Amino acid sequence: MLPHISRKAFIPVVIILAFTFNVSAKDKIIAVTSPDGKAVIRLDYTNELLLSVDYNNQHVMKPSPVSMNISEYPEAFAKPIRSKVITRKVSTEIIPPVAEKRRHIPDVYNETEIWFKGNYGIKLRAYNDGVAWRLLTRFPGQITVNNELVTLNMAAADSVYYGDEDNFVSHSERFYTCRQAGSIKSNQMGILPAVFRKANSSIAAFTESDLLDYPGLYLLGNDKADGSFTGTFAKVVDQMQPKKDRDYGIVSRKEYIAKTSGTREFPWRAFGLADNEARLLENDFAYRLGSPCKLTETSWIKPGKIAWDWWNDWNISGVPFKSGINTDTYKYYIDFASANKLEYVVFDEGWSKPEDLEKINPDMDMDALFAYAKQKNVGIILWVTGRALEEKFEASFAKFSKWGCVGVKVDFLCRDDQAMVNFYERVAKTAAGYHMLVDFHGAYKPTGLSRTYPNALTREGVKGLENAKWSAQITPAHDCTLPFTRMFAGPMDYTPGAMHNENEKTFTINWSSPMSMGTRCHEMAKYVIFESPLQMLCDNPTNYLKEPECLSFIAKVPVTWDETRCINASISHYVTVARKHGNDWYIGSMTDFTSRSFDVPLTFLDEGHYSVTIFKDGVNAARRAEDYASETYTVNNKSILNIKLASGGGFACRITKL
């Protein structure tokens, strides 16, 4: 758990103590302990590299082999003979250009770097809320990595939230289901994060970070039913061909996973550790492990909200023009964004041919629209496919910049092999050069890139609300799972905001007039609970204008946070989060199909009186999901909010100091 440290009490200090020394052959176990003594990562290199992890005096991961197979240096990571050790104690602070969970991030850890004869090594870190390791090499020139051995020897009885994946070509949109770790077989591939619950109820969320010039990691179970997992990676693409009008099909792959620099640090493999689910939601471990920001100037990066067109199928009404993908419709969206102080409008699929960004829809006067948006102080973000952008990369960015485009939504990426991972970095870096934001869709999970390139504000890789257009599986229970699974890795573009809300019995699938499952207040709570510095308003302006009270609230919910506190949580069942931005606090609460009641003491408030405006499930919300009630009254830090959630229900409020 990250402590809630006041700014007055915390003075950022960097203390790095480095020691290099030779050791005897007798000492072949090294342990790194977190500053608070609760987390331990231990390396045994007696015959091979074996890693184990403890938390709260319990095994999280039993000794597990790690190594790397390198064509040019087959002896590396075999029969290790230690040559030197460097230890560091670090106590500093990260001030992110874009505050996802908090404005000031304490970065406090103990680290040991162990090198072995033959120019390879491993780095271990222990934080109070997690442990991590990464492999190191110091070879000349390029190397060919055939495979990296990542093993997690968990306990068979551990429960795990596991997102089954069936292909290395995927949008990474998966449901997380809970089962025993020992039940997952060797043919069941899973995406990261994977979230384990131990026997003592502590939580261990496994993911990776600082993924650069290397493929993404997946897990496979084990047919021995012993709770162990091994890593697997997509191999380097050899040949591919265009698939339909927006992405590529893989024809063949090489026999290795990466060709990369021989001197480098490989991605972090990391466990976020917490006593319970609530503390896990506060954890920003993957962000801290990302490489520091590579941009010299970041003041131009503006998080915000987006009026989105695609989900609602451009179905505006009550206007004197034919709605659709045309100039008049987008002027209407721009007017709506401007009137409600939304920072952006996205031009999604249809403004150009998906396969050719130079073939612009003749119904779209792009010059006029960009000029109109500038006049209204609204930024335009353009949807593009990764394939179309790659084929005319520099020319497209130059043209977008000339128009005045402020960002790109890059879609149908669908891979995380080495070439695609490098493409993400290239997009983020190039976009930054043009002062453009990036939203990756059809994307793999976040891996710390938003720290390295803070203009890469958000990404999909989540089973979000768009799926409600063709599926009845985006349930309140699913919504209550995501904050602890996918969101552990970083911001997610779930695209909330439906104003047509139905319960489990009345929900229907409708492509052109979609709806959400759960109450109106469940939908509003997502704006507080789900993290995304680019947050969508997915419904059409006509529907929002019919609901001015709800629109006013969600339009004003911030997208970045000074502080985050999870009040209560049970994965897949319920979650209540309080977040601070400036002088205001926001609370969001959601439940599955079980109605619940919580008392929330407002002890986190400073002294003084506050005005609270609440949105709660109406008395008939279980029958009519759109039923809600709102009220405003005065509270202080001795007050208690009583939150009553209907089946599939929610609660949202804003607390402002008087």
CATH class of the largest domain: Mainly Beta
Shape descriptor: globular
- Which range does the strand content fall in? 35-45%
Oligomer type = single chain
Global mean pLDDT: 95
Helix content: 10-25%
Q: Which structural class do the helices and strands define? A: mainly beta
What is CATH's topology name of the largest domain? Beta-galactosidase, Chain A, domain 5
Q: What is the CATH-assigned architecture of the largest domain?
A: Distorted Sandwich
- Uncertain residue ranges: 1-12, 18-25
**How many β-strand stretches?**
37
Strand order, sheet with most strands: 26-25-24-23-20-19-29
Query: What is the number of helical segments per DSSP (H or I, 4+ residues)?
Result: 12
Radius of gyration, in angstroms, nearest whole number: 25 Å
Summarize this structure as a short list of keywords or feature phrases:
single chain, 658 residues, Beta-galactosidase, Chain A, domain 5, TIM Barrel, Immunoglobulin-like, 3 domains, 7-stranded parallel sheet, globular
